Amino acid sequence: MRPSSRALDELRPVEILVNYSKHAEGSCLIKMGETHVLCTATLEERVPSFLRNSGLGWVTAEYGMLPRATNTRMNREAKRGQSGRTQEIQRLIGRSLRAGVDRVALGERQITIDCDVIQADGGTRCASITGGWVALKLATQKLIKAGDITSDPLLSNVAAVSCGIYAGQPVLDLDYPEDSDAGVDGNFVMNSDGALIEIQMSAEGSVFSRGQMDELMALADKGIAELVAAQNAAVANA
């Protein structure tokens, strides 16, 4: 029995509230159970210096957690400096989202996705990627509507979900009680065609077999399909 009483292949309740931020070109608040992340997209008519005059656009990301996103207060990273974990997560978000972008169609402009964790209960990086894509989609839709670009630069949806081995069973979408006690923990980033973008897997107390990996992949396939459907429904209602 999972602590949440969910089935082994059941996602936490997913809610995506679009246009959550007044000023951002695209935004949403994504809720994956008790994990809540505000994702905003900022459009700039410039690119980093290494891309100037290349004809290519750029998508990047920043990630952070509010001091009371967790059960004890953390100091703000603006005060203590950015942690290695934060740097690793925001690089993951950026390269995951870029995998679904036609950077030629985007043109020489940059979109920055900010992912701010309001409340954490496991899977914050996965929620950030899934919600970040929605914010990115809304921003590119504005570019198309304004006539600034002629074709959709987003090649596919991009979403992410965690899977792991908890109490000897493969489970989908780990919350914090499961994540903190899982023998194996992984994050799967995929597009809407089911193609893999990135897998982060590690044994945390017990090894896992090729067969178990296949079971986790099957769970990830199911979870990503459901998240893509939630993304599309959210964007359609924007």
Could you describe the 3D structure shown?
With 238 residues, the chain is of the alpha+beta class. 32% of the residues lie in helices and 29% in strands. It has six helices and nine strands. A five-stranded mixed β-sheet has the order 1-2-3-5-4. Strands 7-6-8-9 form a four-stranded antiparallel β-sheet, with helices on both faces. The longest helix is centred in the C-terminal third of the chain and has 27 residues, at 210-236. The chain starts with 13 loop residues before the first strand and ends with a helix.
Mean pLDDT: 96
Largest sheet: 5 strands, mixed
Q: Taking strands numbered 1, 2, ... along the chain, how are they ordered across the largest sheet?
A: 1-2-3-5-4
Task: Provide the β-strand percentage band.
Answer: 25-35%
Total strand segments: 9
Q: Number of helical runs?
A: 6
User: Which overall shape is indicated by the principal axes computed on the Cα atoms?
Assistant: globular
The helix fraction, in percent, is 25-40%
- Order of H and E elements: EEEEHHHEHEEHEEH
User: How far do the termini sit from each other?
Assistant: 37 Å
Class by alpha and beta content: alpha+beta
* Rounded Rg: 18 Å
pLDDT under 50 segments (min length 5)?
A: none
